[in-house]
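go over this record:
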Amino acid sequence: EDMGLSMLSDSQNNQYILTKPRDSTMTHADHHSIRDIVTIGMLSLPCGWLCTTIGLPTMFGYVICGVLLGPSGLNSIKSIVQVETLGEFGVFFALILVGLEFSPERLRKAWKLSV
């Protein structure tokens, strides 16, 4: 179905959108991305909970979830662009979680020990 999108395909048959739809009133949803985000959310919660119950950090469960769904695991997320994008979101949220766990007092103690 041609929606007025210019597509580019590389040697591995990955497709990239070069321009946005000509008719901006027409909504366009990327169902693969939505499905992948929901899948990651549905699998990361049990993986994080399982790691917490056996005494491992929750972040370890999230990493296991990413490895399971990515190209090195079950290959559920096939598009390299989506793997990179979702990986960057994962790093972003991991940094937020690390920042939320550190209090200024704890940071000062770590600073005194390291210096």
The chain has a mean pLDDT of 79.
